[in-house]
Amino acid sequence: MKNIIIGTAGHIDHGKTSLIRTLTNIDTDSLSEEKKRGISINLGFAFFDLPSKRRAGIIDVPGHEKFIKNMLAGATGIDVVLLVISCEEGIKPQTREHLDILSMLNLNKGIVVLTKRDLVDDEWYEMIKSEVSEELEGTFLENSKIIPFSCKTKEGYEELVSEIDNLLDEDFGKNDNGIFRLPIDRCFSVSGFGTVVTGTIISGKVSLNDSVTIYPSGIETKVRNIQVYEENCKEAYAGQRCALNLANVKKESIERGFVVSQKNLLSPSYMVDCKFYSLKNIDKNILHRQRIRFFHGASEIIGRMYILDKDEIEPNSEAYVQFHLEKPLTSLKDDRYVVRFYSPMITIGGGYIIDPLPKRAKGDKFSYVENVKLREKEVGYEYISSLLKNDQEMILTIDEICEKYLISKENLLKELKYIIEDEVVKEFEDGGKKYYIHKENLDKLFLEIDRILTGYHKGNKFKIGILKEELKSRLKVKSSKTRIYDKIFSYFESQKLIKLISKYVSLFDFEVILSKDDKRICDGIIKEYRDKKFIPPKIKDLESKFNVSYFQELHDYLEDSGVLYKVNPEMYLLKEDFLYGKNQIVKFLKENKYIELKDAKEILNSNRKYLVFLLEHLDETKVTFRDGDKRRLF
Fold first, then answer.
1. What distance in Å separates the CA atoms of residue 292 and residue 435, rounded to the nearest whole number?
2. In the predicted structure, residue 63 carries a pLDDT above the cut 80
3. Longest dimension (CA), the chain
4. Alpha carbon distances (Å) from 60 to 71, 217, 295, 423, 593
5. Helix (H, G, I), strand (E, B), or coil: what is residue 222?
6. pLDDT at res. 176
7. Is the pLDDT of residue 524 over 90?
């Protein structure tokens, strides 16, 4: 079922609280001072059931300019606004400021309620209605319904309730990333239960006994009880007003604006990169390093605005900015925010967060802004492509992408399907895990491999290739997932870009070219090993016999290309002889329980020294195992 929060907005004494009381039979002015002064000071909360049996929560915000920060604390999470305007007074300063704030928070659904209809005649009402329509042109409420309302006569009651119910059927365009977040707007203690926090769940869900963290303090706690609209529940969802009873937390350690979320997930920051839109009615430009009040969720933080792409911001314009804050902010990409001057406290604009964990903007600002623009893209096809393209790790799993960039797995898999189909991103699999790398990074990786191999081939003309592990260590991009490089190398081989020969890697068209003399020496080395079989020649004797400065390189070439087999540094055999010898020993062991040195000597016609070397090598490679003076089949 869709859950929505309705919020009121409007000038002081225009009847917001009375309107809610009429709709819900709940008085949201709970403070004695509110009742005494007849104005709302803090946030008020109520709920009611619609004709469709759906339940809607209502937040009553104060209208007085002194309590704008309280209004802002309640505005986050609102889905539908009831812009309340008195028929007696019409549009007033706080009406305009509330409307500006809601626009900055990207609200797009609302109803205009002209209250106190019973106090004015028809002519006055029509004049006020016309004035309101004109004022709302160009705003998100431009085409919204205007409903006359009277708490006294109940005029407009049925129409307003019906319109709210109808709005619930519309698409609110909200993207729930699945990450549970509840900005705290109230905190109190209940005797016998302990600390309770309340707020509007802006994404995800919370369940009874969930382990959660309070940010930015990092306090870890457990959900002992959940209430939604005064009823105990096992779970609460995005779009619901919710009260959480938290275990082992003192009320004094929590402030309005703190966020309850999943453990080890969010990272508070003193800086955020943002897109900023200035309001058209501010009377002066916004300066670089302007001292401001930053409102996000239920929090208010003082800071400074660093303008990235211009010298100063004029009214009714936009800019890329970095905010430096005096307290840590817990936010996610695309969260909305509002900004007011530090003094005088007037709303000057707002926008959305692009990067909740940026680096300090310094040096070449143009390059920095271009990077911010890349990160600005919506969490969709282009954004996911961009983050995979620009991630330093380059090769990421689904879980790593979700955790690193706080994207829901459902959204990620949906977009990745199309990105892979378009061959923008390549998928590799190893050990049941899937890894993803952007095609441009794959191309860059090959260019790096090509550069390394070209240089290696040039300096090692008798080497059939570089060792795989050495190639991995030489790559500039150091991935923690070295195993997946084997899959990437196989992919490059399938594209005829490289060759894989045992544990070596070479460029696809590379071949070791031997001169006539080189070939003669190699043939001579092979003949020496063939003639002497299991009492092979010593390396130093061969080196003296052939007497060339690069003898060792030719000998290594024969080993690399699989002609020679290294038993140990003192013993090499022709590969065919080693395989023959191993097979003969295995055959003997299959017919007998064990083999001794004397048996091996008869089979292979060798001496004790080389037989020990060979048998020890077979132990190491788990063909045999030693049992005293005997060997048995492994």
1. 43
2. no
3. 123
4. 8, 28, 18, 51, 89
5. strand
6. 64
7. yes
Alpha-carbon dihedral sign for residues 148, 152, 155, 158 = positive
Nearest 10 degrees: CA dihedral of 6, 10, 14, 16?
20
Whole-number Å distance between alpha carbons of 147 and 170: 19
pLDDT at 414: 84
Domain with CATH 1.10.10.10 in the chain: 377-513, 519-633
CATH of domain 269-372: 2.40.30.10
Q: Give the DSSP H/E element, type plus range, for residue 586.
A: helix 575-591
Residue 29 pLDDT exceeds 80: no
* CA 65 to chain centroid: 38
398 pLDDT exceeds 60? yes
**Structural tokens at position 572:** 């090499």
The 8-class DSSP code of residue 79 comes to: S
- Is it true that the peptide bond before 216 is cis, omega within 30 degrees of 0? yes
Q: How far apart are CA 548 and CA 590, in angstroms?
A: 45
C-alpha 612: how far from chain center: 58
CATH number of 181-262: 2.40.30.10
Read off the DSSP letter of residue 573. E
pLDDT at 603: 93
532-543 burial, b at 16+ Cβ within 10 Å, e below that, comes to: ebbebeeeeebe
Q: Which of 546, 331, 477 is nearest to 555 (CA)?
A: 546
Q: Do residues 273 and 351 make contact, with C-beta atoms less than 8 angstroms apart?
A: no
CB 142 within 8 A of CB 110: no
* pTM for the model: 0.68
pLDDT at 379 over 60: yes
Beta strands in 201-257 (DSSP E): 205-207, 211-215, 219-228, 231-233, 235-237, 241-246
CATH architecture of 4-167: 3-Layer(aba) Sandwich (3.40)
User: Would you call 617 helix, strand, or coil by DSSP?
Assistant: helix
Which stretch of 48-57, 403-412, 579-588 has the lowest confidence by average pLDDT? 403-412
At 220-233, the pLDDT tens digits run 999 999 998 888 99
Take residue 73 and report the two structure tokens written for it.
């604390």
DSSP summary character for residue 17: H
Under CATH, which number does the domain 377-513 receive? 1.10.10.10
- Alpha helix positions (H), 105-230: 122-135, 157-167
419-423, long-range: CB < 8 A, 24+ apart: 419/381, 419/384, 419/385
Q: Which regions of the chain carry the CATH code 2.40.30.10?
A: 181-262, 269-372
Enumerate the CATH 3.40.50.300 domain ranges in the chain, comma separated: 4-167
Tokens 């983050």 sit on residue: 387
DSSP secondary structure letter of residue 424: S
Q: Which residues, listed in sequence order, are joined to residue 228 by a DSSP beta bridge?
A: 231
Higher pLDDT, 155 or 57: 155
Neighbours of 560 (CB within 10 A): 19
Task: Provide the 3-class DSSP secondary structure of residue 283.
Answer: coil
CATH topology of domain 519-633: Arc Repressor Mutant, subunit A (1.10.10)
Tokens of 622: 């788990």
